[in-house]
Each structure stands twice: as structure tokens, then as C-alpha cells.
Amino acid sequence: MDTQSALSLILSGDPALFAILRLSLVVTLSATLLGGLVGLPLGAIVALTRFPGRAGVVVTLNGLMGLPPVVVGLLVFLAFSRSGPLGSLGLLFTPQAMIIAQAVLITPIISALTRQVIEDLWAEYRDEFTAMDVRPWPRMQALLWDARFALVTILLAGFGRAAAEVGAVMIVGGNIDGFTRVMTTSIALETSKGNLPLAIGLGMVLIGIILAVNAIAWSLRLWSARHAG
Amino acid sequence: MRDKRDGAVANQTWQPARADIAEITAVDDNGLEPKIAGTPSVLVLNGIVVCAGATTLLDRVTLHIRAGAPTAVVGPNGSGKTTLLRLAMGLVTPTAGTLRVDPAKRAIVFQKPVMLRRTVADNVAFALRAARQSADREAVSTLLAVVGLVALADRPARQLSGGEQQRLGIARALARRPQLLLLDEATASLDPAQTNIIEDLIGAIARSGVKVVFATHDRGQARRLAGDIVFLVRGRVNAHAPVDTFFTTPPTEAAKRFLSSDLVL
Q1: Which residues of B touch A127 (CB under 8 A)?
Q2: Which residues are CB-neighbours of A174 under 8 A, at least 6 positions away?
């Protein structure tokens, strides 16, 4: 019965459900964009440069892939709280704070995976690029471009991670109805209230989004194999 | 030059850049230097040693590679042919000895060139930009015409056949306008038709004034293309002789055994 009620909520275009869905997508897509802007070049730089302490950076990035969302939420909360270093910005309990928290969560994932992909590709391209005398900046651009399909998959993995997390956005967003309530926090709240149809409906949409993300990644792989070799 | 529709090497006028390299007058003291007087050297190795860990890949190699007809580097597996070419390209650092070559005027085509994940034309454009050359449509088309790949300009490079990829690798190398072109077993694993196309291309490039140094297992190919032969055994130059001399009166016992297909150890 709960499942039928959930389906009717989705099919009837329930405004509350779709408001939550819209905000979730805005927050997660923005966080993925931000994480990509930082994580992709950071991963490529670490992959292509040698500097003292590089091994420590690699280990740290890899380790931060398993960063607990609640810890990220706590750190961002402390940074943006009134007495925190960024408290004057007044971002706590806003969607912007949620975007930042999710971006902090997924940037290490994106950069660590990017480093691995670019490092592997560089091992393949090194001799050719050295023989061509390709300079560092064009080299990085070319490697990022040639790894584009793998990098899109990495971004989608970051998107999936951000879309599925609840701890960080709960702490820094506050789960305020109509303002910072997203799918995962709503599911947690509605379940605790016993409002299972909405929780199930949101859960179905969330699973649908994650499946769609994977379908996109798979399609990209097929397309790249056909069109770009 | 061959003129087939798809795999053709077009009859293009293509001029390499020339660089001034002073003639080396020092004479090799081990009697391995072919006597081609008055020809400038484009690649000089003097007492080169290359080690990888405890393994010596090249052992006191002294060579003067002179401008003119292609030089074939032959020898059994593990004799150091690839290491010699990679050294000449600057991809390997010698443990000892000196190397003299104009770094701006050399290019290499690997046995399996890495194709960038973009079109054939974009691969050439990338090489032209890396060589600080104009990468406009005309420059790209000129190089593709030289290697007979104009018709495939918009195809993803990774979808080319092995022979076509080799030709694209050569086009990218020519983007550097080299005076010295190094080819590492460019026709290994190609069928006879593709091998012929590549050999025609090597001949055309050599006639345009580019010094070609190629490693090969194919003794027939060495005989067809080369002006002189460098014969390596276990990282050492066993013989360096004009091609006719090498094949008709092999200068060493190892060369005789190599030519008669005996195992050279």
C-alpha cells in the first residue's frame, strides 16, 4: 500500500516532492561542478608533477575518499558557524553551505580517481609526448581531454556519492522545510515520522536518479568506443 | 611512388627543415665506421654505455651516422636496437659516453605509436602545435597527403588499421620537420601490402633529404632500403658496413651467422 501511495505521489506531480527533488538536484549538481573544477586539475597536477611530499599527498587524497559525511558536515558547520572563520558569510543552514559540504566530500574522490586515470594514461603517452616535445600545460590539457570519458564517469561517481549522502547536508543545511530539505534528509525525517509513502516515493526517485546516472555513464562508454576509439 | 586510391602515398612535395651540424672529423678507432668521406654526421655516439640496473643494454657503442641513404639497425632480439633509437631520441640517458645530435631536428616513430583519442587530422594538428608550427588546415592536409591519409582525416585515429596508424605516426613525426627520423620496427606485424606502403614512404622521406635510421628484423627490408647497416649483438656494435658489403661479404662471423639465420648469442 505504501508503494502505491508513493507512486501516486510521483505520478500526480506532488509539489512538495518535486520541490525537494529540484533542490536536491541543484545542490548535488552544483557540488559536482565545484568538485570537478577543483578535483580534476588537482588530480592531473598530482599525476604529472614530482615534488617533495608527493607520496603523502597521494596517500592523503586516497584516504580522504573514505571521508565520513558527518565529519565533513561537522567541519563545514564549524567553519561557517558564527564563531567560525567563515561565520561572517552567513551561509550556515543555506543551500550554499550544503553545496560546499558535498563538494568537500567528493573533491578527494574526484581528484584521487583523476590522478590514477591520468597517471595511467601518462604512462602510455610519456614517450610519445616526450618525443613530440609537448610542453607541460598542453600535455595536461591533452591528457585530460583524452581521458574525458573516464573523467565523466568519475564525475558521475562523485555525483552519485553526493546525491546519496545525508550526514553532511543534515548538519550544515538543517533540513529546513522548503529551504534546505533534500531527498536524503527528507527520507530520514519522513521515515522517523512514519510518513512512509513520501519516504518511499523519495527513495524511488533517488534510486531512479542513481540508475539514470549509471545508464548515462554506460552510454558514454559505448559512444566513446564507437566514435573516439 | 605507389599511387593507390586508399592506401596511397601521395606524390607530394615536402621539404624538411635543414639544420647546420658540423661535420665530425674524428674517426672511429674500432674499424667499424664505413668510409663515406665528406658526408656530415647527423648522429654521433662515442663510447655510449646504457645500463638498466645490473643489465648493460648498450656497451661502449661508438657510431657515426651520416646523412644520406637510410641506416638500418639490425640484430637479434635484445641486442639493443630499440635502446639505440630511444637513446638517439633522448628518451634514454646514457650511463657513460657522449651523444651528439640536434635535439630540435629529430623525431621518432615507435613500433606501436600511441594514437591520441581524436581524429586523424587532430592528431597531426596536435603534433604541429607541439612542434611550434602552424596547425592550420593546409599544414595538416599537406602532412596527411604525404602519408596518404587525407581520405581518413576525420576518422578517429584509434580506429585506423596498424599500417594506417604507422603512417599517422610518421606524419606526426614529420610535423617536427626532422633532419633525423628514427623508426623502430615500423613494419613489424604489418601485412606485405602495408609494409610496401611504409617502405615507399621511408624511401620518399629519405630522398627528400631526411636521414632515416630504422630498426628492423627484416633483412630483406634492410637490403631494399638501407645504405649502410649497423649490426648489434648484445648491446655492442658488431659491424657497421655499407649494405652491399654487409650482405655480400659479411665483415664478422656473427654477421655471417645472422645472415645465414643461425642463432647469434
Answers
A1: 86, 91, 110, 114
A2: A93, A180
Tell me the torsion sign for CA atoms A133, A138, A144, A146. negative
Instruction: Report phi then psi at A26, rounded to 5.
Output: -60, -45
What average pLDDT does this structure show over B102-131? 95
pLDDT in tens, A120-139: 999 999 999 999 999 999 99
Q: How far is B69 from chain A (nearest CA, A)?
A: 23
Asked if the Cβ–Cβ distance from A228 to B156 is below 8 Å, we say: yes
ipTM of the modeled complex: 0.82
Closest CA to B166 of B196, B128, B139: B196
**pLDDT interval class at B225 (50, 70, 90):** very high
B89 touches chain A (CB under 8 A): yes
CB contact (8 A) between residue A130 and residue B91: yes
- What's CA B194's distance to the chain center, in Å? 17
State how far the alpha carbon of A90 is from the alpha carbons of A77, A95, A103, A169, in Å.
11, 12, 18, 16
Q: With an 8 Å Cβ cutoff, is B115 touching chain A?
A: yes
Whole-number Å distance between alpha carbons of B31 and B34: 8
Residue with cell 558547520: A77
The answer to whether residues B134 and B124 touch, using CB atoms and an 8 Å cutoff, is no
- Pair type for strands B106-109 and B180-184: parallel
* CB atoms near residue A76 (< 10 Å): 26
Residue-wise pLDDT for B156-190, tens only, equals 999 999 999 999 999 999 999 999 999 999 999 89
pTM, full prediction: 0.82
Mind listing the pLDDT tens digit for each residue in B39-89?
778 999 999 999 999 999 999 999 999 999 999 999 999 999 999 999 999
- B176 neighbourhood in chain A, CB within 8 Å: 132-133
CA distance B132 to chain A (A): 10
Residue type present at position B108: I
